[in-house]
From TrEMBL:
Gene3D superfamilies: 1.20.1260.10. One of its GO terms (biological process) is phenylacetate catabolic process. NCBIfam families: PA_CoA_Oxy1 (TIGR02156). GO terms for molecular function: phenylacetyl-CoA 1,2-epoxidase activity. This is Phenylacetate-CoA oxygenase subunit PaaA. The lineage of its organism: Bacteria, Pseudomonadati, Pseudomonadota, Alphaproteobacteria, Rhodobacterales. PANTHER family: 1,2-PHENYLACETYL-COA EPOXIDASE, SUBUNIT A, PHENYLACETIC ACID DEGRADATION PROTEIN PAA.
C-alpha cells in the first residue's frame, strides 16, 4: 500500500468517518479487526459456559429466567460479532477452527470455574461491568459493522450487570453464610476481572496502532482504572472487601478527581491462562468442539437445502 493511500485512509479516520466493509482499507486495519472481532465473538460464545453451569441450579424460577435470558443474549452477541467479522472476508468455519486449534484467543476470564451461586452474581456485576467499560467506546469504533453491533450489545450488557449486582445485594442482605459466599466469589474473581482489560499499556502490542485507527478509543490501563474507580465504591456499599491490600485512594489521580491505586497484577497468571494453562481452558475448548461436531448435521442440511433451492431456481 503506498503512502498516499495510507494517508488518505488515515484522513478518513481522523475525520471520524465510518469505514464500511466494501471500502478500500489497509490490510493491517482489516487484519486487526478480524483478530479483535473474531476473538470478541469467541469470548461471548465461550462465556456462555461458566454461567450455563448454573441455569439448572438457580435458587428460584426468577433467577433461572434471568440467567437463561443472559446466556441466550451472550450467544446472540457472539453471532452478531461473527457476522461483523464475516463482512471482512473471513468465514465462520475458519474462525471456529482457529478457536478450536488454540490459534485464536478468547477472554481469559472465562477459564475460571463457577463454584457457587454467588459467582453468577459476581460475574454479572464485575465481568459484565468490565465488558460495558470496554464495549461503550467500541460503539464509536471506526469500523461501521462493529460499532453498530455494539449499540445493541451494550443495552443488553446493562441488564446483565444489573441482575448480577442485584444477586450480590440479595446475598449481602442475607445470612452470614450467604455473605461469606459472596466475599469468597469476589476474592476469586476480582483480579481476573482486572486482567480482562489486557496487559499494561507499556506491554500492549496493538494499542498504539488500534488507537490511531480509532478501533480502540481508550488504552487498557485507562479503562481498567475507570472500572476500578466505579466498582470499589459499589463493593463498599455492598459491604464487600476488595481483595487488594495495596488498594488506596489517591486524591491526585485522574487530574485531581482522585482514584484508587491498585496493587500489582499477576501477569504470570494472566499469560499462563491466556496460553491455555487455566483451570477450565481444556473444558471450554472440549465443550466448543463437541458443540461444533454435534452441529455438523445442521450445517450439512442447510447446505443441501440451499443447493436444492438454487437448482430449482435454475430449472
Ligand atoms: N484474554 C485473552 N487475551 C487477551 C486479553 C484477555 N483478557 N487481553 C489481551 N489479550 C491478548 C490480545 O488479544 C493480544 O493477543 P493477540 O495479538 O493474539 O490478539 C495480546 O493479549 C496483547 O494485548 P493488546 O492489548 O495488545 O491487544 P488488543 O489491542 O486487542 O486489546 C482487548 C485487548 C482490550 C481485549 C481488545 O482486544 C478488545 O477490546 N476486544 C474487544 C472486547 C473483548 O473481546 N472483550 C472480551 C470479553 S467479552 C465479554 O466480556 C462478554 C460479556 O458479555 C461477558
Amino acid at each position: 500500500e503506498d503512502a498516499a493511500f495510507l494517508a488518505a485512509f488515515q484522513a478518513r479516520i481522523d475525520a471520524e468517518e465510518k469505514i464500511e466493509p466494501k471500502d478500500a482499507m489497509p490490510e493491517g486495519y482489516r487484519r486487526t479487526l478480524v483478530r479483535q472481532i473474531g476473538q470478541h465473538a469467541h469470548s461471548e460464545i465461550v462465556g456462555m459456559l461458566p454461567e450455563g453451569n448454573w441455569i439448572t441450579r438457580a435458587p428460584s424460577l426468577r433467577r433461572k429466567a434471568a440467567l437463561l435470558a443472559k446466556v441466550q443474549d451472550e450467544g446472540g452477541h457472539g453471532l452478531y460479532l461473527y457476522s461483523a467479522a464475516e463482512t471482512l472476508g473471513v468465514s465462520r468455519e475458519q474462525m471456529t477452527e482457529e478457536l478450536l486449534s488454540g490459534k485464536a484467543k478468547y477472554s481469559s476470564i472465562f477459564n475460571y470455574p463457577t463454584l457457587s451461586w454467588a459467582d453468577i452474581g459476581i460475574i454479572g456485576w464485575l465481568v459484565d461491568g468490565a465488558a460495558i467499560m470496554n464495549q461503550i467506546p467500541l460503539c464509536r469504533c471506526s469500523f461501521g459493522p462493529y460499532a453498530r453491533a455494539m449499540i445493541r450489545v451494550c443495552k443488553e450488557e446493562s441488564f446483565h450487570q444489573r441482575q448480577g449486582y442485584e444477586i450480590v445485594m440479595t446475598l449481602m442482605r442475607g445470612t452470614e453464610a450467604q455473605k461469606a459466599m459472596a466475599q469468597d466469589a469476589l476474592d476469586r474473581w476480582w483480579w481476573p476481572a482486572l486482567m480482562m482489560f489486557g496487559p499494561h499499556d507499556s506491554e500492549s502490542a496493538h494499542s498504539e496502532q488500534s488507537m490511531a485507527w480509532k478501533i480502540k478509543r481508550f488504552s487498557n490501563d485507562a479503562l481498567r482504572q475507570k472500572f476500578i474507580d466505579a466498582t470499589v465504591p459499589q463493593a463498599e456499599f455492598l459491604g464487600l472487601k476488595v481483595p487488594d491490600p495495596d488498594m488506596v485512594w489517591d486524591a491526585g489521580l485522574n487530574d485531581g478527581q482522585g482514584g484508587y491505586r491498585h496493587g500489582p497484577i499477576d501477569w504470570d497468571e494472566f499469560w499462563r491462562v491466556v496460553k491455555g494453562g487455566g483451570v477450565m481452558n481444556r473444558d471450554r475448548i472440549r465443550a466448543r468442539r463437541k458443540a461444533w461436531e454435534d452441529g455438523a448435521w445442521v450445517r450439512e442440511a442447510a447446505r443441501a437445502h440451499a443447493l436444492k433451492r438454487a437448482a430449482r431456481k435454475v430449472a
